[in-house]
Amino acid sequence: xxxxxxxxxxxxxxxxxxxxxxxxxxxxxxxxxxxxxxxxxxxxxxxxxxxxxxxxxxxxxxxxxxxxxxxxxxxxxxxxxxxxxxxxxxxxxxxxxxxxxxxxxxxxxxxxxxxxxxxxxxxxxxxxxxxxxxxxxxxxxxxxxxxxxxxxxxxxxxxxxxxxxxxxxxxxxxxxxxxxxxxxxxxxxxxxxxxxx
Length: 197
Fold this sequence. Notes:
Layout: H1 8-23, H2 28-35, H3 39-46, H4 56-64, H5 70-79, H6 84-93, E1 108-112, E2 127-131, E3 141-146, E4 149-158, E5 162-166, E6 172-176, E7 180-190
Antiparallel strand pairs: 1-2, 2-7, 3-4, 3-7, 4-5, 5-6
Helix pairs in contact: 1-5, 2-3
């Protein structure tokens, strides 16, 4: 049997899915039937224990079963708090407890892209929701807050002195940790939200 490590991001996604299902007045069995899976399978998604739950096609199927969109799920996820204990443990266990500054809970921020430098991953107008309490996985989008402003890219690697991001075309950017204030994983990309400029 596969064992899943606690993952605050997966937990938040599962909690958001459960909140949306309950708001629609559906049981896990009813939601699962609409998606073509068992109530147990649906329950694993809500528990954050189902592989592939971050894939866009899976999120489209999950939200379609609730007559919603992946954007609805992302917005609900942005509202869900990350367990303070789990967030702190996740930063500690990877030996990457960087710029947590004692922050134990979710610290979510938004940033709207103004250009297409990250296309096709994300284009102009897309709003990124990033969480400073969640360190990015390899090839996950992240926002690095530096002295010169935010730097956005796909996380490649990090060590004691640097953080390396790569762009969609594969180009790499090395950032010195001495110039970095914080690093946060992108937990949602919202398109067509119509946020104020």
